[in-house]
Amino acid sequence: MVVKDPPGFEKVSDMLARLARPLIEESKTKEDYKKALRLAVVAWNAALLPEAERAAMLHEKRIADGLGPTGIRLMEKLIERKLALFPNEKRPILDIEVADLGGRFHLSVISEIPTSDPRARRVIEAKGLSPQAE
Predict the structure, then answer these.
(1) Looking at the chain, which terminus has fewer C-beta neighbours within 10 angstroms, N or C?
(2) pTM for the model
(3) Is residue 100 part of a domain?
């Protein structure tokens, strides 16, 4: 089920933009902007993992090699920032889309709402569905 702007939930796109703000402010092109947001998405989703799994993920060879030491430190800072800004937000980010609106960029985010979240149950019930119907 896809629900746009479910009631009772802050928009993940707004939260992701706040998380990535230090990187976004340095972005000059759409590609820079998207790159900053992709890093923020990885940090966001990593922050949802238990601490031991998060550390192991960051030090997996393919990730460590891809990011390098500087990138790993940046990722760790973004994870810390996510945990500080949104400690109770547990929705994983599934995808992002960036549109160039001629001088500014628009971010759209697709995230998952775990059915264990009571707010999700209210949205599902309001749609006349049951969690098993998903």
Answers:
(1) C
(2) 0.83
(3) yes
